[in-house]
Write a structure and sequence with these properties.
Elements: E1 2-3, E2 6-7, H1 10-70
Antiparallel strand pairs: 1-2
Length: about 70
């Protein structure tokens, strides 16, 4: 097989493509793992922010009740 005018055996070309494919596959697996980890962190952050919002609403509600009782 000719590559850029040089005769290269087909086995070496197939081996090179195989190595490149394996490297790309490993990169994709690593990216998928990182993305799953980020999704878990985002879900945890969302739960925490909802919990904070609930607490703040509860505090505001208590504050309003105290103001009504004082009047």
């Amino acid at each position: 097989m000719f590559v850029f005018g040089i005769d290269v055996p087909l086995v070496e070309v197939v081996l090179a493509f195989t190595l490149i494919s394996i490297i790309i596959l490993i990169e994709l697996i690593v990216l998928a793992i990182i993305q799953i980890y980020q999704m878990k962190q985002n879900k945890r952050m969302m739960r925490n922010s909802l919990e904070v919002a609930k607490v703040l609403l509860e505090l505001k509600d208590r504050e309003l009740r105290l103001r009504r009782l004082k009047k």
